[in-house]
Amino acid sequence: MLVERLTAFDEAVPSLKTLRNVAEHFDDYTIGRGRAAGIVRQQLQAWSLGEYSSQGLVWRWLGIEFPIDGSHDAARTLYRAFLATADDYLAERSQIVE
Fold first, then answer.
1. What are the φ and ψ backbone dihedral angles of 88, each rounded to 5 degrees?
2. What pLDDT digit, counting tens, does each position of 18-58 carry?
3. How far is CA 86 from CA 27, 72, 77, in A?
4. Cβ proximity of 60 and 50 under 8 Å
5. 66: exposed, middle or buried (C-beta count within 10 Å: 0-12, 13-18, 19+)?
6. Burial of 22 (0-12, 13-18, 19+ CB in 10 A)
7. Which of 46, 73, 41 is nearest to 57 (CA)?
8. Domain residue extents for the chain
9. What is the pLDDT of residues 59-95, one digit of tens each?
10. Angle, nearest 10°, between helix axes 2-12 and 68-97?
11. CB 62 within 8 A of CB 4
12. CA distance 78 to 72
């Protein structure tokens, strides 16, 4: 069940993987050794954060428009699913121990 929720999260915020990869390996991208094809050094230098009509707050970087509100909703849904799964697991474990 949790795997399906992780998949749903990844589908809800597909650009997050690229943004995280570039941010984590920023130095590699500045010298042209990044793994994501199509990301060039010049794209690293400019970003913006602003309102976008129907999506709320949007972070723009690397030619990607990342909706903050939508990603927050997806993260909250994933976190709640994790807590529910953890509660179920702990309830099952406590019955085994008793």
1. -60, -45
2. 999 999 999 999 998 898 888 988 999 999 988 776 768 89
3. 37, 21, 14
4. yes
5. buried
6. buried
7. 73
8. 2-97
9. 999 999 999 988 999 999 999 999 998 888 888 777 7
10. 170
11. no
12. 10
Residue 69, phi then psi, degrees to nearest 5? -60, -45
d(CA 8, CA 54): 21
Q: Global pTM? A: 0.74
* Cα–Cα distances in angstroms (integers) from residue 30 to residues 11, 63, 88, 93, in the given order: 28, 16, 46, 49
**Cβ contacts of residue 43 below 8 Å, gap of 6+?**
61, 62, 63
Q: Is 90 exposed, middle or buried (0-12, 13-18, 19+ CB in 10 A)?
A: exposed
Contact 59, 47 (CB under 8 A): yes
